């Protein structure tokens, strides 16, 4: 199920289903608001978005009410999450997914929001979007790339992905061609959905995976076993391709490390790419969870989002 595209002048609602909008620095908040308003959009904020508790979040009830209200408000065309965090999976059982099914809208965010994006797709079939938070628009690293990638994805029908100046190029780990359904986002957050009703399913999965370093020196070990667990949950036969994002330098995630991680886990004939512009670094693309991607990993790679 596809939500209507964003159009110039539409209202964008900011919600905080993970950490509170209140933790976003004033400088970042003001830059993000100014950026989106200058693009010609009306920005509104959910009633409970600035509530904050001991965990820099708010109650389950407050967060769920804001989600329901955003989907029910006919003036709202796109919903942006304020920021990520650690606890969005607390609210999944309390959401009325029929409201979302009856009022489909573009929802975009990343990091902890991975759990919400994939759960909504699993429960309703609505394609959701892994990409910029509201706060993302307040950061300046290749800002034009991030903004263009977001608006291209939520306003237009087709999308060909090209590397940013920061990424320079996408690295081919394994050559191959595939077309499939995009599932993924933040790996450790996606794995929280294993064994639940909120884990999305497909027979032709192309995994888009990234992670941030909350494990320090143990990051690579943690990523390795989380990746193994995800493959075991789905079964290798369903995985048609894998796309790894970009990693912060302190992750020490090099091409050689990725090659070692996948060496005995994936069939050799499926395409694998590394260093694509998404993750906990800037700039970033926006891509659809549940959308379709066509991927040709070769000397002249082709990377197209064909249905979103």
Walk me through the structure:
- The chain is an alpha/beta fold and 308 residues long.
- 27% of the residues lie in helices and 23% in strands.
- The protein has eight helices and 14 strands.
- α4 links the parallel β4 (106-109) and β5.
- The longest helix is centred in the C-terminal third of the chain and has 16 residues, at 219-234.
- The termini are close together.
Low-confidence stretches: none
Number of strands: 14
The separation of the N and C termini measures 9 Å
**Series of secondary-structure elements, N-terminal to C-terminal:** EHEHEHEHEHEEEHEHEHEEEE
What radius of gyration results from the CA coordinates?
Answer: 18 Å
Q: So how many helices?
A: 8
Strand content: 15-25%
State the assembly state of the protein chains.
Answer: single chain
What's this model, at a glance?
The chain is of the alpha/beta class. It has helices spanning 26-38, 60-72, 97-102, 114-124, 143-155, 187-190, 219-234, 255-262; strands at residues 11-15, 42-45, 76-81, 106-109, 128-130, 159-160, 171-174, 176-186, 205-210, 239-245, 272-276, 287-289, 292-297, 302-307.
């Amino acid at each position: 199920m596809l939500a209507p595209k964003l159009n110039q002048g539409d209202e964008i609602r900011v919600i905080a289903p993970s950490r509170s909008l209140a933790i976003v620095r004033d400088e970042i908040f003001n830059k993000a608001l100014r950026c989106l308003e200058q693009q010609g959009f009306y920005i509104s904020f959910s009633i409970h978005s600035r509530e904050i508790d001991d965990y820099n979040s708010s109650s389950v009830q407050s967060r769920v009410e804001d989600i329901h209200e955003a989907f029910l408000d006919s003036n709202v065309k796109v919903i942006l999450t304020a920021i990520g965090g650690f606890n969005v999976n607390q609210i999944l059982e309390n959401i009325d997914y029929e409201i979302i099914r009856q009022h489909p809208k573009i929802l975009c965010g990343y990091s902890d929001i991975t759990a919400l994006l994939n759960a909504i797709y699993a429960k309703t079939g609505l394609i959701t979007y892994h990409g910029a938070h509201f706060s993302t628009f307040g950061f300046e690293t290749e800002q034009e790339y991030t903004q263009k990638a977001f608006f291209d994805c939520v306003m237009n029908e087709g999308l060909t992905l090209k590397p940013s100046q920061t990424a320079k190029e996408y690295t081919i780990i394994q050559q191959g061609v595939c077309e499939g359904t995009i599932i993924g986002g933040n790996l450790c957050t996606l794995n929280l959905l294993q064994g639940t009703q909120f884990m999305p399913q497909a027979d032709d999965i192309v995994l888009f995976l990234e992670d941030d370093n909350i494990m320090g020196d143990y990051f690579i070990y943690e990523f390795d076993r989380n990746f193994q667990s995800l493959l075991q949950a789905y079964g290798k036969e369903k995985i048609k391709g894998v796309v790894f994002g970009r990693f912060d330098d302190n992750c020490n995630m090099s091409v050689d490390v990725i090659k070692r991680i996948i060496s005995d886990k994936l069939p050799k004939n499926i395409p694998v790419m590394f260093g694509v512009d998404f993750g906990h670094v800037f700039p970033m693309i926006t891509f659809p969870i549940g959308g379709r991607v066509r991927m040709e990993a070769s000397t002249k790679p082709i990377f197209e989002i064909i249905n979103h």
